[in-house]
Write a structure and sequence with these properties.
Four copies of one chain form a homotetramer. The first copy, chain A, is α+β, with helices and mostly antiparallel strands. Chain A has three helices and eight strands. Helix content of chain A is about 25%, strand content about 45%. The longest helix of chain A has 17 residues.
Chain lengths: ~140, ~140, ~140, ~140
């Protein structure tokens, strides 16, 4: 991927997807089968008011997004399509009031199915793991 | 549940949880083993820019919240605890640019584990299904 | 479905699939979007030796089989294909040393994806629930 | 773990659990947080008759068993308990008519919850991945 291509996708991800823009997502890395973003903490992401923690659903949101991004990364035409079929998240540790790093890699890319695994980290420690299954249609 | 109890929980859910307040969640029903909310559409929930659709992660967010609410519903002391262990979502239809209804019911409530099943609906049609496993600690 | 069609599929399911034959699976019902089998208890299915219970993996095995059967039910040519992409099982109660009933229904049948939900019952009570996602290829 | 301890557990796993004995499971490695077995192919494990493949449910069966074994590995009294809460399997490749290797490692061991991740391999290649959530009770 050239720097221009990276910058273009970075712009789409960060500025054009409303929920990403709201969350101030920043794309850090993007390769054919791997992606990484950072999402800063802000007040609106709190789900657990007694403990001031991130809502786990927002970790799921970012894990779904970044897994799906790896599918669009393999698109060859404008008509190519992707949709999340199922998403599974294991929460290992609570998400503190700090930035999260979310990354994803491809487990399997078939003709009709994409499977990705995702992680959410804080301070280098994995706090949640995810799996995404996506239905894809890539025109050839 | 008395109307006062319902109103108290409704106030917490709608006003005190920042991500709920951001999403304008409204609690519609709450029984011992069942809960239902409505969440209006707004621009920031869009995840699919080509088609103007809800981000599926926000459906997951609400399904996780409402499943967990059913656990807190059985709390007897202030020290009781709940945490999501895993969350699984099946996406059946895309979520159009309209309000969603999210409901949850208890599948199993044990001493250490709560399992709930959740649904997201639009116009009476189920567009996503979820399962949540929660670790609970209820003091007796 | 005619009685002849039912008998033909029943024969395949019961006699031709080695793991089914080993387990003595009997097909009870089969409709376009629903299937039900019974599997008797026998010594070899025990997984929990302290309590003489079925191994949960065999419940998963049957739930996967019967979910997939609903896909083959929609096949139109000999080249049509189905493969399990992912399988998720929630165990609600332990499976006692008695016969199990396993049923499945279609949640979604798309062009590339089949999603089914399955149940295992003993004495009319649901003891396990499952979801299956299958990749399908139906030639038209 | 001493060789005597290993031999004792190996004996239980291989000889005392009926479904393991039927499948001719052999315990290869066992550490505090890791376990590995081999299971030879035999006719009765076939699920796909057209292609002579293992039934995926038997891979699930072994992944569930070996994940759970890691829980019992941490037991301190005879009253300690473990039960599978949920099991999720991703099937990546079909399982050919050869032996399978199944391994498991602990992702998280809490006071009430054990999470393990499992793999099934053939010829050094991962053909299925699993996650198990177990409810545990370890007396202290």
């Amino acid at each position: 991927m050239t720097k221009d291509q990276f910058d273009y996708i970075k712009h789409i991800i960060e500025e054009k997807v409303p929920i990403h823009k709201f969350l101030n997502v920043k794309l850090l890395e993007l390769e054919q089968n791997y992606a990484k973003v950072i999402v800063p903490f802000k007040h609106e992401v709190i789900g657990d008011i007694r403990r001031n923690r991130w809502h786990g659903g927002l970790l799921a949101t970012m894990m779904d997004s970044i897994g799906g991004l790896l599918g669009t990364n393999h698109f060859v035409t404008e008509d190519d399509k992707i949709a999340t079929v199922d998403l599974r998240i294991d929460y290992l540790e609570e998400a503190k009031a700090e930035a999260i790093i979310v990354d994803a890699e491809i487990v399997r890319l078939g003709k009709r199915i994409l499977i990705t695994k995702m992680r959410t980290l804080q301070n280098g420690k994995v706090i949640a793991e995810g799996k995404g299954v996506y239905s894809i249609k890539i025109n050839e």
